[in-house]
Amino acid sequence: MKITKAETILVAVPFESGGLAPWGWGGKPSNTFDILLVRLETEEGLVGWGEAFSRMDDIALKQVIDTRVLPLVVGRDARQISQIKHDIEFNLHNFGRNGGITFGVSAVDIALWDLAGKRASRPLVDLLGGATTDTVEVYASLVRYGTEDAVSAAVQRAIDQGYRWIKLHDIDPLVIRAACKAAGRDAKLMLDVNCPWTVEEALRMDAELCDLGLHWLEEPVWPPENFAGLAAVRATGRHRIAAGENAGSLHDFVAMHAAGAIDIAQPDVAKNGGVTELVKISRFCEAHGLVFSPHCAIFGPGQIATIHLTAAEVRPPLFERLFLDFTAEVFGGAAVVKQGKLKVPTGPGLGVDPDPEVIARYRVA
């Protein structure tokens, strides 16, 4: 099971988000969504697919993974998943315990688990203890709309498509209230504000929104590693606090819990260390009374891995899917939500490989 080839493939797929201005994430705005694939091939000819969290045609991140991470993978025994993960992290820890290096480690780890499932001729969920469900409940993760009319229309579209759980990303109280009014009794809402506020501002907004019955309040404090600030908001008892997509590993979740900062842990399989790390975080949550609810704003192998991780939980959490319409789906119909649900793939490994025609059509590098 020696790994003989390792490469990255960067794909950018166009999407429609409802007539909003394109996203920028600090760069040039674009209505495309990155899928940064890692492809591992073994001497037996098996291929495993992984994904690193990426945005905005991220050639720089691709180069980091190509030049720093993948050279430490070629020649290794693909069966040694935990050892390979540890060795990459240890050898590259001077380059940071979060960010690009960790995203690359995450992608490699996902691909190694895909290989493990293919080698065993079993779906990933079986390697994680077996499925407790054959479908996962999906929540529509809306973009930020900025106006009462636009967010109300988006909420109604999601409900019409069968979603009964919806996450908002708006930060204006009037817009948030309009969304809640539009949902009525047809859907339950959560709110992710993406770290916009000081602790003082977050406490004020926490009080202003407390009558809306939000299922959770996600990342209200800047910076995201201000666990004491998160704990101050959580201590009011007005909202359950969710966070974790910006964490680096299990140890960040241990620190969040120790600070009393979170009720809901949201690791991202393409950012926080792959399948191996999310299994550890899940077990930590189980032992300490936290809700394990992975973040999933990705559309490649990381998305599929998250479906398997979700289905392996005794009480499967809600599954996140950004509420976007893509020109093409890299997995065809396998990851298309129907009536608010996704089926758990049953093929070996991740259960589905990326469509080579979609990759060829939208490949950036």
Task: Please tell me about this protein's structure.
36% of the residues lie in helices and 18% in strands. Strand 5 (165-168), helix 6 (173-183) and strand 6 form a beta-alpha-beta unit. The protein has helices at residues 59-69, 81-91, 100-120, 124-127, 148-160, 173-183, 199-208, 227-234, 250-258, 274-288, 301-311, 356-362; strands at 3-16, 32-42, 47-52, 135-141, 165-168, 188-192, 217-218, 241-243, 264-265, 291-292, 319-322, 325-326, 341-343. Strands 4, 5, 6, 7, 8, 9, 10, 11 and 13 form a nine-stranded mixed sheet that branches. The chain has 365 residues and is α/β, with parallel strands linked by helices.
Question: What brief labels describe this structure?
Answer:
365 residues; alpha/beta; nine-stranded mixed beta sheet; 12 helices; 13 strands; 36% helix; globular
Write the layout of secondary structure elements.
Blueprint: E1 3-16, E2 32-42, E3 47-52, H1 59-69, H2 81-91, H3 100-120, H4 124-127, E4 135-141, H5 148-160, E5 165-168, H6 173-183, E6 188-192, H7 199-208, E7 217-218, H8 227-234, E8 241-243, H9 250-258, E9 264-265, H10 274-288, E10 291-292, H11 301-311, E11 319-322, E12 325-326, E13 341-343, H12 356-362
Parallel strand pairs: 4-5, 4-11, 5-6, 6-7, 7-8, 8-9, 9-10
Antiparallel strand pairs: 1-2, 1-12, 2-3, 4-13
Helix pairs in contact: 1-3, 2-3, 5-6, 7-8, 9-10, 10-11
Q: Which structural class fits the helix and strand makeup? A: alpha/beta
The percent range for strand residues is 15-25%
- How helical, in percent, are the residues? 25-40%
Head-to-tail CA distance between termini: 28 Å
Rg: 20 Å
**SSE sequence, one letter per element:** EEEHHHHEHEHEHEHEHEHEHEEEH
Q: How many E-type strands?
A: 13
> Shape from CA axes?
globular
Q: Mean pLDDT, rounded to whole units?
A: 97
Number of helices: 12
Sheet with most strands? 9 strands, mixed
Poorly predicted runs: none
